[in-house]
Amino acid sequence: MLNLSPDLIHFVVTTAFSLLIGLEIKTYNLKAKHKKEEFIFGTARTYTFIGVIGYIAYKLEPVHLTVYAIILASLSLLFALLYYRKLQEGNRSILLYAVMLCVYAFGPMTELFPLWMTALLFVLIVFILNAGKTLYRFSNDINLDEFEILGKMVLLSAVILPLLPDTKVIPYLPISPFKLWMAVVVISGISYGGYLVQKYFFPSKGYFLTGIFGGTYSSTATTVVLARKAKNTGNNPVITAAIIAATSMMYLRLVIVALVFNVHIARSLAIPFGGFALLGLLIAFFYLKREDDAGSKPDFVDKNPLELGTAFLFAVLFVLMMLVTNFVMHDYGTNGLKVLSFAVGFTDIDPFVLSILTGKYTVAGTQLVSAIMIAAGSNNILKAAYALWFGGWKGGVHSAVWIALLGMATIGYGFWI
């Protein structure tokens, strides 16, 4: 086996990646129809030499980087002269300069970091150079307010979460502040992920996909919106299928949430909830086959589930539901828990489910599984009522009947186990 010198490997990798980026820049310039060569910052040979020079300059003085910095300043000066000419032509892009900086950094990166990081940078450069139109459409279509909210959520999670104590410091609350906020982050992340997938990857792919992805973050809201549409369009099998599919996705969503916080309960829920989800999807596909209008453009549920006010409200409801659950179980036992589960189903069940998954209770695990199933079943009955109310008899009766049957079957299974 050849025992190659690390310096040789780093030099070859730097040269190869620099050459390939140079060739990619040539292709990029041809696609952009740059006709004046003097306005192009180098060719494939130029970028290859830039990468090689960066590697040599770093190796000559790897501590103070004086040589490396002088060469970088010289290259930047050359680009500044070129950029001045480009400004006179109305071209303000500094993309090629940014690419040049990345190529110049290939050499030091191969020495300081694992080779996969240099390879990742190379792939990223190639991807960005070839995704210009896609990124442009994405930047025009995206709602920047959503990313502002996401940034705030990430900031709160990254800053506050590590500072919260992982011990029980709140009286009568059997959970630490750290785990409480972690639950809020997880449930918001799942909801926001489904929302982004639906809005930006499948924005106009039909009512059925609206039901599928809408059910991953709010089957209730999706049911209301689709039922209203059904009232205007009459007995539309596709919308009926979409409403049933949204409820089916709720079962899978609850299994995923349970898997994050309590593996034992998740295992107990997997088979019955998976069965109900499969049954619901089969019913939905039956209605879907009756109509070829699956590609109709839906009224998208454009409501961002990840808002800071909503997150804090969820945290308050989570704490309140955990206190209520503790009180009911202490004073009324498992029968009281089942009654509470049924009543909670007519509200937002996520805080209650999380209180079951994260709390420390004295009852058997099967009773906790039963409570989650009863809450999910009664929530289906609520959605059936919504489907009939907002969709009318003609537009919502089919979906309402099937969702109600799924709900009663779920409740029955929950009382039986």
Q: How would you portray this structure in words?
A:
- This protein starts with 5 loop residues before the first helix and ends with a helix.
- The protein has 417 residues and is an all-alpha fold.
- The protein has 16 helices and no strands.
- The protein folds into 2 domains: 6-137, no CATH class; 142-416, no CATH class.
List keywords for this structure.
78% helix, mainly alpha, 417 residues
Produce the secondary structure layout.
Elements: H1 6-31, H2 44-60, H3 66-88, H4 95-104, H5 106-112, H6 115-130, H7 132-141, H8 144-163, H9 177-201, H10 207-214, H11 219-233, H12 237-261, H13 263-288, H14 308-344, H15 350-358, H16 365-416
Radius of gyration: 29 Å
Helix content: over 70%
**Number of continuous helical runs:** 16
Tally of strands: 0
Broad shape: elongated
Output the helix-strand order: HHHHHHHHHHHHHHHH
Mean pLDDT: 80
Describe the sheet with the most strands: none
Structural class: mainly alpha
Q: How far apart, in Å, are the first and last alpha carbons?
A: 63 Å
Which residue ranges are poorly predicted, with pLDDT under 50 across at least 5 consecutive positions?
34-38
Write a concise synopsis of the structure shown.
This protein has 417 residues and is an all-alpha fold.
